[in-house]
Specification:
Elements lengths: L1 H19 L4 H11 L4 H6 L3 E2 L1 H10 L4 E5 L3 H6 L7 E3 L8 H4 L7 E5 L4 H12 L5 E4 L2 H8 L9
Parallel strand pairs: 1-5, 2-3, 2-4, 4-5
Helix pairs in contact: 4-8
């Protein structure tokens, strides 16, 4: 009985691990189109990351059109919301729907922000691949923005 269970367990494990190796070839091809642009020369150009200090200075100066794109979940945004007039909240899982992409400005800069910067970095890479040339993510995310916020750096009166 124990031998039969062992053999069945091994067969089941082998079958499950075989399926785990399968992947979506069409999706992989689409991802390859994006990541193939992220070669050494492309990465050296930089420009996709901006410091929280520079974001706050840019907002305070008010000299250029800026959009703060918040890609956090609705639950996160309920806890702490961006109240700057340029803030636009579109959760990452909804960002690439045509009706939401059309909400993004074609002129001016887009600063993408999330909690810590990881999702924002991914969103920035994908937006750049989709043709947005004016997009950067806030290094360190909302945590870094709040950490760098003082009465002297507050961009809104």
């Amino acid at each position: 009985m124990k031998k039969t269970l062992s053999v069945l367990s091994l067969a089941l494990a082998a079958a499950l691990s075989f399926n785990a190796q399968a992947y979506d070839e069409a999706m992989a091809a689409k991802i390859d189109q994006v990541t193939s642009k992220m070669d050494h020369a492309g990465l050296l150009k930089g420009g996709c990351k901006v410091s929280p200090e520079d974001v706050l200075k840019t907002l305070a100066a008010g000299k250029e059109k800026v959009t703060l794109l918040d890609v956090r979940t609705p639950a996160e945004a309920k806890v702490v919301a961006l109240s700057h007039p340029s803030a636009l909240h579109i959760p990452l899982d909804k960002l690439f729907k045509p009706e939401n992409l059309s909400r993004l400005p074609k002129d001016g800069r887009i600063f993408v922000v999330c909690h810590s910067g990881n999702r924002a970095a991914g969103a920035t890479a994908l937006l750049s691949a989709a043709g947005f040339t004016n997009v950067s993510y806030v290094n360190g995310g909302l945590i870094a923005l709040v950490t760098n916020l003082t009465p002297k750096t507050v961009p809104v009166e």
